[in-house]
Amino acid sequence: MYIQLMTRERTTVQLISTDTVWRNARLATFDPDRPAPYGLLDQHDLILRDGHILAVLPRGETVGGTIHDAQGRLITPGLIDCHTHLVFGGNRAAEWEQRLNGVSYQAISARGGGINATVEATRAATESELLTRAAARLQRLLLEGVTTLEIKSGYGLNLQSEAKMLRVARQLAARYPVEISPTLLAAHAVPAEYRHDKAAYIDLICDRLLPSLWQEGLFEAVDVFCESVGFSPAQCEQVFAAAQRHGIPVKGHVEQLSLLDGAALVSRYKGLSADHLEYLDENGVKTMSDSGTVAVLLPGAFYFLKESQRPPVETLRRYQVPMAVATDYNPGTSPFASLHLAMNMACVQFGLTPEEAWAGVTRHAALALGRQRSHGQLKAGFVADLAIWEAEQPVEMVYEPGRSPLYARLFRGKITHGSAL
Ligand code: DI6
Ligand code: FE
């Protein structure tokens, strides 16, 4: 790893010329082994090698390498948005206007609008049109220091269009300095052609879409919409069982508009995360605690749907269920590409502390994506995905969404955005 030169006074670490050292920074490590809030460290050097963090050392314990003077700025892990529907055609602004005039999300869904309106626009769009639209949304997240994000399918609802969406997600990762975790959400809504036979559509997912798209390597996890306007727990379990037969991790949109014990179902399958959770009860929290399933909070949808039922944050805390925070970027219930705003809403609407909100877009978001041993902390061996801020305290980015005081963004140790370029 690196050579330690023992001298009388102290250990000095000899670096190689391609190593880089970020010096004079305040490090918010989110390393649970560091006792300070946010895992904060002053007077330490962050040493990077080959796209990873080589070490976090007290200042001045290294010799060699290329020094970058952070001039007292704050460095955090790159942000992780662990729940987005970033790829889609069309928009649902007119529907939102109807909802403001009192028409419910469920009523719009029932008459073929809602998700199916976006399905129609997504099926009609070409891969290149979807890529262009999604890239513009992605750029806004990158400028907020996001370095990893999850992107779901779920607006195709047939093999060809679900594949098209997932290929767009793969192209975004190929064209931009960002890591993408693609998720199959074919069980998002029943497409028009199956509206009279939901069971047959679930069979199509389990017997055709899931195996074929898995074969093509187009996704990492399987998600479902367990809700009255989506699929029943039994139908979701059929999809989870199919995923399990292929060894694919699962997650679910659960307890968003009602309590269907979807979180307990996700937990039974040792799911990565249970998402939304406005109607989650203590039994559901307990199952998540037992299975290690992450609670992904999506305050944007709560806000846009003008919900009143909040997720049981206090109970989640009591059972020490890790809480993540994400944008849920989608045209129907959360059309905004700002993880800082989502952090702010998680504090103002759901009562998280700013430190919990930050853990929710770093360490806990990494856990929700199965990347807890490599992402979301400033720790030796983790990826060198960093955000450097014109700010002294992490709370500043939660306090003032829309400002995004990003000084520099590093992806695998390379500066991709900001004035340090
Ligand atoms: N829950 C949501 O809030 C989004 N999907 C889901 O399962 C809504 C997606 C849409 O309305 O387009
Ligand atoms: Fe969602």
Topology:
Elements: E1 3-6, E2 11-14, E3 20-28, E4 40-49, E5 52-58, E6 62-63, E7 66-69, E8 74-77, E9 79-81, H1 93-100, H2 105-110, H3 115-124, H4 127-142, E10 146-152, H5 159-175, E11 179-187, H6 198-215, E12 221-224, H7 233-245, E13 251-254, H8 262-268, E14 273-276, H9 282-291, E15 294-297, H10 299-304, H11 313-318, E16 323-325, H12 339-348, H13 354-360, H14 363-368, E17 386-389, H15 395-399, E18 406-411, E19 414-418
Parallel strand pairs: 2-6, 3-7, 3-8, 9-10, 10-11, 11-12, 13-14, 14-15, 15-16
Antiparallel strand pairs: 1-2, 3-4, 4-5, 8-17, 17-18, 18-19
Helix pairs in contact: 4-5, 6-7, 8-9, 12-13
The structure holds 3-[(4S)-2,5-dioxoimidazolidin-4-yl]propanoic acid and fe (iii) ion (FE).
Fe (iii) ion (FE) binds next to loops.
Helix content: 25-40%
For the secondary structure, the number of strands is 19
CATH architecture of the largest domain: Alpha-Beta Barrel
Task: Give the biggest sheet.
Answer: 8 strands, mixed
Structural classification: alpha/beta
Overview of this protein structure:
- The protein has 421 residues and is of the alpha/beta class.
- It has 2 domains: 3-77 and 377-417, Urease, subunit C, domain 1 (Roll), CATH 2.30.40.10; 79-368, TIM Barrel (Alpha-Beta Barrel).
- The protein contains 15 helices and 19 strands.
- The protein has helices at residues 93-100, 105-110, 115-124, 127-142, 159-175, 198-215, 233-245, 262-268, 282-291, 299-304, 313-318, 339-348, 354-360, 363-368, 395-399; strands spanning 3-6, 11-14, 20-28, 40-49, 52-58, 62-63, 66-69, 74-77, 79-81, 146-152, 179-187, 221-224, 251-254, 273-276, 294-297, 323-325, 386-389, 406-411, 414-418.
- Strands 3, 4, 5, 7, 8, 17, 18 and 19 form an 8-stranded mixed beta sheet that branches. The chain has a 4-stranded parallel beta sheet with strand order 9-10-11-12.
- The relative contact order is 0.14.
- The structure holds 3-[(4S)-2,5-dioxoimidazolidin-4-yl]propanoic acid (DI6) and fe (iii) ion.
- Fe (iii) ion is lined by residues 83, 85, 253, 328, 330.
